[in-house]
Amino acid sequence: MRILSKRQLKELVLYSPQHIARLEKAGKFPRRIILGPNRVGWVEDEVLDWLQKRLDSRDTT
Question: Mind telling me which Pfam families this protein's record contains (predicted)?
Answer without folding.
Answer: Phage_AlpA
